[in-house]
Every structure is written in structure tokens, then in C-alpha cells.
Amino acid sequence: MPTRRRALLILAALAGLAQLCLSLALMVGSVPIGPIEVLGTLLGQGADTTREVVCSLRLPRALAGFACGGLLALAGALLQVLLRNPLADPYVLGISGGAGVGALLAIVVGLGAAGINALAFFGALAAMLVVFGLAHGEGGWTQSRLLLTGVIVAAGCGALVTLMLSLAPEDRLRGMLFWLMGDLSQTGDPRLALLLLLAALLAALPFARELNLLARGADVAQALGVEVRVLRRGVYLVASLATAAAVTHAGAIGFVGLIVPHLVRLATGNDQRLLLPASVLAGGSLLVVADTLARTVVAPQQLPVGVLTALIGVPVFLFLLGRAVPGRG
């Protein structure tokens, strides 16, 4: 089977899976809705109550979940190439920690959803700039220097988060903990998250060939004409902004950016032209499924979606850790 045809079939299958996951998210809940009713509602028909549940509650949440899952998976795929480590994760560079500090500060001082999102995003950007600034020494930066700097910044952010949790009023602790564990229940209009996902994917795809060469090593890529320093900066910037956007919209949701790109790589190979869009579709589907379970497993009570992704991610991470080969991207 030709490579191009195989790639198209894989992407078509993943797109179908994403559509199925989104459809289930619209049907499943405390008020079950059949597929025909859902379709009619999306076409502007059906009862007002059904339209309210599907169009105002479930659809925006499902689309936001898909966008955030896609952003995290894309960031994970890019960072695994950048660091040449198949177990690299979007949160390893401290970006999530910076967003957490900003979001919890906003909650402590009593800001609304807009203020929480704004401070979370600025916190993520601040962490990104700090990591990049500290990791960039006289001779540029290496994968190990960037990784170690990110771990240190993440640890510092974690200490600040713990301090704020210990000093926060009791009536705000629940909201803070839900944000830290990932929560899609407060997401609003998903269009911005979807646009950011599309923009990040379109920014990364033109450099798929260069990323394939970078995965083989910086020396090999440079010998074949790749501007390695510029490419590394671009990959770091896109991955950081994608992580910041996802964390801002959905809180700290772990393991999606770790397990999805690695599993997709095991199934499809390491060609970034296929891996990047496939990771977006698979990551979005995974987070939609996890969020659907989070709001239905113990309904009417809702679980933080990060709990479900962790329960899925921990055993998969241990499996991948056993298979990891040092030095391979």
C-alpha cells in the first residue's frame, strides 16, 4: 500500500474516531439523548430543552475538550522531537506550573473566569520566558540544559502553588483544587481554543521534514541544511504556546501530551507529516472520552477530568517507560 494512501487512511480513521467520541459526548449524560435527536438538534430542530442541553452545555464542552486534548498532544509530539526523548511531556518545562500560579492567584483574589484565564496565560508565558532565558547559556542551549531548567522552574512553581493552597480561604479551595486537577466544566466559547489548535498545527506542519531530520540528531540535521537553532526556537515557542492555551482553558490535565504522541508513533512511525495531525486527532478524542466519563461515572457529581487522564496515563506511562530506549526521539 502506498505511503500516502496509508497516511490518508490512518487520518480518516482517526477523524472518524473523533467524530464518534464527540457524538457520544453529546448523547451521554444525566439526560440521555438519542443520535437522531442530537442530529435534529444540531440542524435546528427538536425541543427547547434538548437544544439547551446539546447546544449550550454539551457541545461547547466537548469541542473545548477536543481542542485542549489536541493542543496537549501536539505540544507533546513537538517536545519529544525537540528533546529527543519519547517520554517528554508538555508540563516538564514548567509551563503548566506557571499557569497554575497565575490561575490560583486569580482565584485567591476573587477574580472571575476572564481574570483566571488571563493570569493563567500570562503565568504560562512568564514560565516559558524564564525557562528559555535561564537555559540559554553562552553556547546556546542543549536538550539536557533545557530539560533541567524546566524541571527546576516547575519545582519552584509547585512550591508557590502549595503555599497559596495553604493560605487560601476554605471557600475557594475546592475551585483551586479542581483547576489543578483539570476541569472542563467552566469552559465557555470553544472557538478560540479551536482556532489556536488550528494555528499551532498549521505553524508546525510546514516544518515536518526538518523535524524528521532533527529527530535523527542536531548534527545530522545541520549537515543536511537545517537551521537547527532557529528550528529549535520555533518548536519550543509553538509547543509552549499550545500548552499555555490548553492549560488556560482546561486547567492542568496531565498525561495526554505524554502518552498520545508516543502511542501514535508506535502505531504510525516517526514521520512528523503524519504524526502531528494524527496526534491532534487522537489527543482530542482521548480528552473528550475522559471528560464524558468524568461527568457521568458518578453523576450527578462530576470528577475532575485530570483524574481520569491520570488513571489512564499512569499504567500506560509505566508501560512506555519499560520500552524506552535512551537517546531516541
Provide the descriptors you would attach to this structure in a database record.
mainly alpha, globular, 0% strand, 329 residues
Task: Give the secondary structure arrangement, pairings included.
Elements: H1 3-27, H2 35-42, H3 48-82, H4 95-108, H5 113-135, H6 143-167, H7 170-181, H8 191-204, H9 208-214, H10 218-223, H11 228-250, H12 256-268, H13 272-294, H14 305-323
Helix pairs in contact: 1-3, 1-13, 2-3, 3-8, 3-11, 3-12, 3-13, 4-5, 4-6, 4-7, 4-11, 5-6, 5-11, 8-11, 12-13, 12-14, 13-14
Which whole number gives the mean pLDDT?
85
Distance between the termini: 26 Å
Shape: globular
Looking at the chains present, what oligomeric state does this protein adopt? Answer: single chain
Radius of gyration from the alpha-carbon trace, in angstroms? 20 Å
Q: What is the CATH third-level topology name?
A: ABC transporter involved in vitamin B12 uptake, BtuC
Number of strand elements? 0
Helices, by number, come to 14
Poorly predicted parts: 325-329
Helix percentage range: over 70%
**What's the name of the CATH homologous superfamily?**
ABC transporter involved in vitamin B12 uptake, BtuC
Instruction: Give the amount of beta strand, in percent.
Output: under 5%
Biggest sheet, open or closed, and with what strands and sense? none
Order of helices and strands: HHHHHHHHHHHHHH
